[in-house]
Write a structure and sequence with these properties.
mainly alpha
Length: 73
C-alpha cells in the first residue's frame, strides 16, 4: 500500500505539453460519413475536427487561419 510520502515528489505531466482545450459534444453525422472517416484509420475524430476547422476558416475571410496541430496518421 502507498503512503502520502510515496507521492510527495510526484509531478503530473512533467515535461509533457498541455493539450489544447476541447469541448466534448454529441454530434449526429450520417453513417456513410462516419464510416469514411473511420476507414481512414486511427485519429478519425482529429481529422473530422481539422475538416470543420478548415471549413470555418474558409468562411471567415477576415480572420487569420488558426494554428492547428498536425494530423497524425
Amino acid at each position: 500500500m502507498t503512503s502520502p510520502e510515496d507521492w510527495a515528489n510526484a509531478v503530473a505531466h512533467k515535461g509533457l505539453p498541455v493539450p489544447s482545450r476541447k469541448t466534448q459534444i454529441a454530434l449526429r453525422v450520417d453513417d456513410d460519413v462516419l464510416a469514411w472517416f473511420k476507414a481512414q484509420g486511427a485519429g478519425y475524430q482529429t481529422r473530422m475536427n481539422a475538416v470543420l476547422r478548415a471549413f470555418r476558416d474558409a468562411h471567415r475571410p477576415d480572420a487569420e487561419p488558426t494554428q492547428e496541430r498536425p494530423v497524425e496518421r
